UniProtKB/TrEMBL annotation:
Biological source species: Streptomyces monticola
Highest rank taxon of the organism: Bacteria
Protein name: DUF488 domain-containing protein
InterPro entries to which the protein is assigned, alphabetical: YeaO-like (IPR052552)
Length: 123
């Protein structure tokens, strides 16, 4: 649950049809989703600096990737520039809007960087 005075944050797959109650739609993937036009995505913001580095993403999707270790490494990336500035911008967006929807192409958002962002923004 979001802090008092702050907007609500939820996570959806970008391939789901936009909903009237999505609020501000923020794509939090580094790469544009395959097969989806920008017009159909209805994305309001796309802060690429907030996404996991290419190296981290590749490591996580390799056989060596462990989710708990991924979370640790991703949080370390978020603490450094330019991601820290992008995270501060997203926090301001959440504070200033009643609803923010984080969009991802990940097949399982619960074990992706999106869940990490949602936790950090809601806490």
């Amino acid at each position: 649950m979001a802090a008092a005075g702050a907007g609500r944050v939820r996570v959806r797959r970008v391939y789901e049809a936009p909903s009237a109650d999505d609020g501000v739609r923020v794509l939090v993937d580094r790469l544009w989703p395959r097969g989806l036009s920008k017009a159909d995505a209805h994305v309001d913001e796309w802060p690429k600096d907030l996404t996991p580095s290419t190296e981290l993403r590749r490591w996580y999707h390799s056989d060596a990737g462990d989710y708990d270790e991924f979370v640790r490494r991703y949080e370390a990336e978020l603490a450094a520039e330019p991601a820290a500035d992008a995270l501060a911008g997203l926090r301001a967006l959440v504070r200033d809007h009643p609803q923010v929807t984080l969009l991802t192409a990940a097949k399982d958002p619960d074990v992706s960087h999106t869940s990490v962002l949602a936790r950090l923004l809601s806490g």
